[in-house]
Input
Amino acid sequence: MNDKNNDKSLLEEFQIAGNGLLDRRLFLKRGLQLSAISTLASSTALANDETSDAISSRQPWMNQPGKPFSLYGQPSAYEDRVVRFPTQNELVPGNGVSWTPLHLMEGTITPNGLHYERHHNGVPQIDPKQHKLLMHGLVKRDLFFSIDDLLRYPMQSKICFIECGGNSNAGWNKQPSRSEAGYFNGMASNSEWTGVPLSVLLDETGIKKQAKWIIAEGADAFAMQMSIPIEKAMDDAFLALYQNGERIRPENGYPLRLIVPGYEGVLNVKWLRRLKLSNRPIMARNETSKYTELLPSGKARQFTFFIEAKSLITSPSAHMLLSKPGYYQITGLAWSGRGKITKVEVSADAGASWAEAELQGPVLDRAFTRFRLPWHWNGNVAVLKSRATDETGYVQPERSELIKQRGRKGFFHYNAITNWQVDKDGFVSHVYDKQDNETPNTDISIDSGWD
Ligand SMILES: Nc1nc2c(c(=O)[nH]1)N[C@H]1C(S)=C(S)[C@@H](COP(=O)(O)O)O[C@H]1N2
Ligand SMILES: [Mo]
Output
């Protein structure tokens, strides 16, 4: 059935922004009637006798018992493309990133095996029986905690994202990225973390008046150190032992990691072995030469801490192919280190007009929020954008605005709107706004860098 008139009236009734963006309430209003719309239906119509054939036919896997039980489940062998994308620094062993394939995923939770990884010197193989956390410095008494000790403390769970401050930094390049959405923006993942509030342990050590910072140190060969303001430590920081219900994976900090909700990735110190209370920050590599940026004023910004609101359309996105004009669902993720996402707007005409997307509930504080919006693609070139607003009222900037604020010398904290262009042939690629097109540099551009 191909009822073009029905299509046309649907568009007239529900289009709320340019180039075929439809009202997010379309499904609520029309419900199942939508199956009548030919361009929506990607299903196959059956002739009368085909139905009874379909009922009686048996695929091979219905003719014998399936495989037995397993100790630890694995994804279907047919999903073997849904894997992380590793990019490794060849000069430093174990220094690199593996990206979460956000464009191949749905919902909001990142399965543990797909959480992005950012290591400076590989994944230590820690025996939890030998691992201890030391708390010292400007405390009233130094304390040692074994993992078994910590497992007996009161715990809390929080679903929150972690995003590397270097995520999406290919957006600073003069040429658009050539990578899929995940290999450009997938240094961000979202898990339910469970562990002991840091404030509970600080109550136990006691805090001396002069203590203003906590220096966290990891037990990897890099012995990464980072400084966290004491207010954050007392507010909502916690020491995670579990990730999505199971003990943290070695790659993500087993057996103990610091979680500082909403703060950029590097502050979430993995393989945590030491917390030192101090009257000043430690001025480590990752808070001086890295994760800082030179601003147009000539001053460098340091201790950015918060991840500002950001969103990304995960489908349709780069390298995907829309097979024919008609109905599609635009979907993606939005997040903010400052609280809840309150609104995501989508444009299909390069920002000339915007429509509000449906937010999948529950919308959580400092967590990935899934958005969706129905779209009718008419077969012409379309530039898709998404723009997030958080509960502070902050609105995700266009790339040109971000460059105005930050200049061209920065490499971190890129949270501008991403454009995906759908060509006439349905192929999707990353583009910049026309006014943003700079003279392409002749340098070798880093397609998906980290620090
Ligand atoms: N000890 C230690 N902690 C670390 C790192 C590290 O290399 N060593 N990398 C940091 C960086 S830069 C980021 S972005 C996050 C990455 O966390 P993930 O690998 O669990 O995604 O961990 C942070 N914590
Ligand atoms: Mo990072």
User: Anything to note?
Assistant: The longest helix spans residues 4-14. The chain has two domains: 1-39+307-451, 112-291. The helical segments are 4-14, 26-30, 48-56, 147-150, 182-185, 198-205, 230-235, 399-406.
